[in-house]
Amino acid sequence: MLRAYTELSLQAFASIFAHSPLFGQRGWRLSALFDQMVAIGVASMPTVGLANFLLGIVLAIQGAGQFEKLGATDMVANLVAFSVLREIGPLITAVIVIGRSGSAITAELGTMKVAEEIEALNVMGIDPVKYLVVPRLLAMILMMPVLTVLGEGVGLFAGWLISVTALHLNPIFYVSNSIDAVEQKDLFSGLLKALFFGAAVGTVACYYGMQVEGGAEGVGKATTKSVVTCLTTMLAMDALLTTLIYFVL
Amino acid sequence: MSETKHKSPYALEVRGLTRSFGKRKVLDNVSFQVKHGEILIIMGGSGCGMSTLLRHIIGSLKPDAGEVYIDGTEITKLNDLELAKVRKRFGMLFQTGALFNSLTVGENVALPILESSDVAPHIAELVVKLKLELVGLTGFEHLKPAQISGGMKKRVGMARALALDPDLLFCDEPTAGLDPVMTAVIDTLTVDLTKKLGLSAVVVTHDMTSAFRIATQMIFLFEGKVIAAGTPEEIKANPNPILQQFINGDADGPIPLKLSKDDYLKRLLQA
Ligand SMILES: Nc1ncnc2c1ncn2[C@@H]1O[C@H](COP(=O)(O)OP(=O)(O)OP(=O)(O)O)[C@@H](O)[C@H]1O
Ligand SMILES: [Mg+2]
């Protein structure tokens, strides 16, 4: 299984470069990539925004509860800015994308597999990896950071909003506190995570879709497995990257 | 069709093809040949391995033993890239149609054209119109597969199989679900293609009228083995009782479909 997954991923990554239309080769199509970027990315924006908004509020209120005891409610700005950029933004965005788009990719490819569509592609001499996997994987890799930035923006705004309304913090002060609290490094480490999450979710979701056997039941099972594997892989990757970034940067 | 174009006298040759799923031997030492320009009909009871046989011939499944030669090239051991090259000369109509549900009828037929060469879209559109006309589906380009009937899907599948003017056409029950007139249209189309363009065809069918109308060669599969092979006349004259029961569509005969009354009672009481 791990071998088949690795094979598919390597093949897909090789196809991204080897058959790139940007280098004037016939291969995967830019139009297919844009379609997937819309399906995976643009369509996820409202949900990603909402989730980050809610977590921004939760973070601010929870933080306020603790900082109040120290008489440092101002520190809420630092907490929100730091954790949204470093951790919560990339994480919750990936969770939403896995639930929405990762599962959809597995289900769609799986349905195509059981309906013999993938076999039909093969018989026509069209490489399903190039035609189906590459646009989805690439869209995942490109859109995950974009969605993460969007989510982080919304999360920061929610933190600010709740702080200046419910917690009566000074709006200008809050902003300057936030800016002081974070460095470029925080933003980039979050985006780096998002990039890796995108690659992991894209390959895992496509792999589970392409190996479906046995009708509608198989599609259901594969989708469940895909979501679970995406989530655990993403969390493992998060732990690893966080550790690496802590010690290396 | 010039004779020099071909490497082998046979468009397709299958030798000793054997395949088991678990303990069940679905194909057992199946061998036959198809000359260029011939139409081979594969007959057999439902579930006896005809679709599986086609899957082995087009290279989607690998046999446990035996070889498949496409115009002299053995394909069971080719890698994906080499296989893709051979497959460029194939057209395949799947039993279920296997249309791409996310694409319209027109896009389905255009797909192999656009993906295989740098054809301008308006040329592809023209070819699509032509192919759809062949199968009697003019004006259905913009519908999605979910919006057309089962028989229409079959015909779109046929149009798609013909999109790249293949040398070898494989059809899995092309006329199942079609009315008699449409069946005749598809039959005539298949015969025309072989006569006028020199294409060779392998057709799986349960429709005996249609089979005898178009076949130049026939084989009959039973329990994974080829139990009869020959021209339509030879098949008609073949005394094999299993074959005759199948051709005549009799419920009674040697094909074990139903249990005897005693067996039936026994099974019923056991359960
Ligand atoms: N992937 C598979 N795994 C296990 N068994 C299979 C597989 N594919 C086919 N079979 C078995 O092989 C037998 C032949 O299947 P096949 O689809 O070739 O039948 P068929 O002759 O085309 O029948 P029909 O005319 O009904 O389409 C069936 O009994 C089926 O259960
Ligand atoms: Mg079949």
Q: Name the average pLDDT of chain B.
A: 89
Q: Outline of chain A, from the CA principal axes?
A: elongated
User: Rg of chain A from C-alpha positions?
Assistant: 21 Å
Main pleated sheet of chain B = 6 strands, mixed
Quick one: CATH superfamily of the domain at 3-88 and 216-270 in chain B?
A: P-loop containing nucleotide triphosphate hydrolases
What is the mean predicted local confidence, pLDDT of chain A? 91
Main interface by residue count: A-B, 15 and 22 residues
Number of strands of chain B: 10
Report the sheet-strand fraction of chain B.
15-25%
Structural class of chain A: mainly alpha
Topology of this structure?
The complex is a heterodimer of chains A (249) and B (271).
Chain A: H1 2-18, H2 30-41, H3 45-70, H4 76-114, H5 117-123, H6 128-165, H7 171-181, H8 184-210, H9 215-248
Chain B: E1 10-21, E2 24-35, E3 39-44, H1 50-57, E4 65-70, E5 73-74, H2 80-87, E6 90-93, H3 105-116, H4 121-134, H5 150-162, E7 168-172, H6 180-197, E8 200-204, H7 208-214, E9 217-222, E10 225-230, H8 232-237, H9 241-248, H10 261-270
Parallel strand pairs in B: 3-8, 3-9, 6-7, 7-8
Antiparallel strand pairs in B: 1-2, 1-4, 4-5, 9-10
Helix pairs in contact in B: 3-4, 3-5, 4-5
Bound molecules: adenosine-5'-triphosphate (ATP) and magnesium ion.
Describe this structure in words.
The complex is a heterodimer of chains A (about 250) and B (about 270). Chain A has helices at about 1-20, 30-40, 45-70, 75-115, 115-125, 130-165, 170-180, 185-210, 215-249. With about 250 residues, chain A is an all-alpha fold. Chain B has a domain at about 5-90 and about 215-270: 3-Layer(aba) Sandwich (Rossmann fold). In chain B, strands 6-7-8-3-9-10 form a 6-stranded mixed β-sheet, with helices on both faces. In chain B, strands 2-1-4-5 form a 4-stranded antiparallel β-sheet, with helices on one face. In chain B, helix 3 packs across helix 4 (about 120-135), helix 3 (about 105-115) packs parallel to helix 5 (about 150-160) and helix 4 (about 120-135) crosses helix 5 (about 150-160). At the A-B interface, helix 5 of A face helix 2 and helix 3 of B. Bound molecules: adenosine-5'-triphosphate and magnesium ion. Adenosine-5'-triphosphate (ATP) binds near residues 44 and 48 of chain B. Adenosine-5'-triphosphate (ATP) binds near residues 44, 48, 50, 52 and 95 of chain B.
